[in-house]
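Input record (one chain):
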Amino acid sequence: MPEHSHSHSHGNHDNLLIAVVLLGMGAALFSAFLLPGWWGPAGLIAVYLAAGVPTALSALSELFRERRLDIDLLMVLAALAAAAVGSALEGAVLLTLFAISETLETRAMGRARRAVEALMALRPDTALKRQGGTVVEVPSAELLPGDIVVVRPGARVPVDGVIVEGEASMDLSTVTGESMPAHKGPGDRVFEATVNLNGVLEVEVSHAAADSTVARMVALVTEAQSQKAPSERFSDWFGQRYTIAVLLGAVAAFLGFLATGTDMDTALYRAATLLVAASPCAVVISVPAAILSALSAAARGGVLFKGGGALEALAEVRAFAFDKTGTLTTGRAEVTGLHTTDESRFLALMAGIEAQSEHPIADAIRRAAAERGIDAAGVHEVRAHPSEGVTGQHPDGPLWAGNARMAARMGADLPHLDGVSDGAETLIWLGREAEILGAVTVADRPRDSSRAAVTRLRSEGLTLALMTGDRHAVARRIGADLGFQETEIHADLLPADKVALVGDLAAQGRVAFVGDGVNDAAALARADVGIAMGAAGSEVALQAADVALMSNEMGQLAAARHLARRTARIIRQNLIFALGAMLVLVIGGLFFDLPLPLAVLGHEGGTVLVVLNGLRLLADPIRRA
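The corresponding structure, as predicted from the sequence alone:
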């Protein structure tokens, strides 16, 4: 738990101490109101020993070792002052309520931490490893890169790896926050703790358990929870100085009461009440309660913040700059149009001549043929011609496929294709000597979720910009498809150009840059908030940015900003409530003879309420959104 009113060592009250405190308080109340007896004083002694002594030792240790004045010390002094003036029962009530509220608070804050650590519990302890012709069960921790594991329907994937055989629908929600299952087949990556819903998979291990995506997520979130946000640092700073002021104020009030003719006991009692009323526990705990809950909720929804500072900064962002390829788009070439009289024959020849090429365009053409169930034609003696295309031999005659330069070399006259020949998409021609057999257009496509995310951010009055190293024609096509205006589209950029543009936006307010975390490191670093897309399994992306979206789901971006703004609102609510309640209690203690038990109830109740208000953020708004 962060350093605040309820310290680490005293926060973990074990069940035995709490039981002693409750039994002692029960005995004291029974003696005071029903049947007087020895059990009354014995109960009071038990409460003061079980609740007061550990609190006092913890506070004194903090004072002498860390030179920090712990707010717990104020509670102990107030209880001792009450006992000194003959109100030991009221002092015991203070210590009991303090112990109960501290236990509730510790458990609540622990819940915020455990929400992320629960990811570790989802990791399978054992895996089915293929050894020769048999399958044996081994501890997941012993798996090494290159091992083959079998994942049955309903089982969790034991480690990060690549599918080598089989296909299935996978529930990725534990890692990426995606609510819908995704289809995975040979060559696809799978992550530890994700669930195989309906197929038998053989997976080649790519990372040992200690280096898995889940292990890195947990390490990052644990680190993030230990880094204080600016508002947390303020509440710590405030708590320290204010605690000293409260102590001095209580002494001054005690002397003031005596000076105005109040008797010693009443003056001490009222000073003790003021000590409790003015304690800033609720103010100090209100910020970390909200931040820890938000960090945990975000991680469960597939968004990792590198600390409370990144969370608070995202809430204040006024401009979003987007990389194009791999961020707003899939980053994978896809066939967008066929221009021929016989599509099946054309695709068979195209797939045949591109069968051995590793170029992304060739891969797109082969996938388009496979999706239509078209077999590649037999094309032999294929030769690549850099920056032009390929040539090959087919039983019906020689073939070529390539760009306009290749067509010119073959003596072919290219027809004009309306809406295609403007350079916005890559155009590949297929021909036989001077004869044109047809053309295929290939392009990178926007992600399904990109337009909705851009529209949602624009509706919130944010400045948007699309930045790419790609050609203007391509950038305009993608930008127009996603709803960007002409002035918001910046193309033909080098990495340094992106950094300069982000700097220009930063002059108008806080700016976030959204990239894939690999080739946008400089722009991510220049922005107030760097956001890496599709970071699951990518060590570079996880380390490069302030915020990492584990999936390629752009909807997470708007949801993450919504969570950040909601966190900022809850922090404001908590601080206003805590300071207001404290002010009311202090005025009551100074001018209206506020009873100590009422001050205790107001103080402890306020502390628990701000913690519970912060815990509302655990409702996982990212996945719901």
